[in-house]
């Protein structure tokens, strides 16, 4: 085992040392099982990872399971309405406790020998174990879980990064008015992409490709909101966007909605970025008609034209909060060349499908965009695997956020493998 770990560390360090700032990563970062193990151990194993939204577990006993790498995590709402997270593994002989992605339980009962745990993970029943057996030592193994205004993050490390609390303090005023805790899940779609998880994230961190590849998305969204810097080729269009943004921010901030950009994507261990962005045309929602998808607005909102609050987190999520609905995305590695992209659409808990919203209207833009992005990242994966690939330069005008993702990734992996 020590030989394997040493080989993994040596390869990781070698690849990290070769990384050229401003350029994409070397091919092994997208192809190597050894480097995926490093990602799972040091990136997904030691950072806060977005996995779910609270409306997925609205009542005591509601649970979901989240799988990535070789981990299976059980997330449950306890009787005090707190979010609990455990390794989805019985303490008796290792059986998986809950096989379904979601469900409802009174207690957590192992299907093998019926060891029974309460919703806080305490072992409360285990028959035939003898007089010397101490159930207090056999509770479920806990996982750190934290909710940020209804977004559930977990951390597998014994000591999770403390700067999560800084993100909570800064982001709660932005997210809280949308009242995700008063929403319900309208639908969830899982998409498996035949690519490395980092290609999925890099693709998300730029809109260089948007105009030519995402006709549905760019009906409402301006490409300039995603890390653009001044470029003589689009100076007039970008200035128009900046003028619209400045006016919109003044209006929204006057309504008590924080809107200005916060960008610490590669400055903190728990990196993130947010900005409330204007939407084009009617400016109400990310729909094909740019009007709201749901007539039942979120929280206390009465004005539907609140743009789209975008929120990106390292290493694996992005979110769009609008006046009428919220879309959350999580990226979870399956293998070195296979990635799960999970998209969750939430609407007001009292919104009625077919009356207040139509599911096709709600999901049309992102279902189309996700399918288009899947094609793009899979073509990149194929090209990288040919052997002809070598790292290429990022655009200084349109791919600054991609560089920040890669810079964060390289810095974190370097710090954790030294």
From TrEMBL:
Q: Sorted alphabetically, which CDD domains does this protein's record hold?
A: RHO_alpha_C_GbcA-like (cd08884), Rieske_RO_Alpha_N (cd03469)
UniProt-listed PANTHER family: CHOLINE MONOOXYGENASE, CHLOROPLASTIC
Organism expressing this protein natively: Hydrogenophaga palleronii
* Keywords on record: 2Fe-2S, Iron, Iron-sulfur, Metal-binding, NAD, Oxidoreductase
Identify this protein by name: Rieske 2Fe-2S family protein
Q: Which ranges carry the Rieske domain?
A: 48-154
Q: Which domain of life is it from?
A: Bacteria
Membership in a protein family: Belongs to the bacterial ring-hydroxylating dioxygenase alpha subunit family.
Q: Does the keyword Metal-binding apply?
A: yes
Keyword DNA repair recorded:
no
**InterPro entries according to UniProt:** ARHD_Rieske_2Fe_2S (IPR015881), Rieske_2Fe-2S (IPR017941), Rieske_2Fe-2S_sf (IPR036922), Ring_hydroxy_dOase_asu_C_dom (IPR015879), Rng_hydr_dOase-A (IPR001663)
Q: Which cofactor does it need?
A: Fe cation
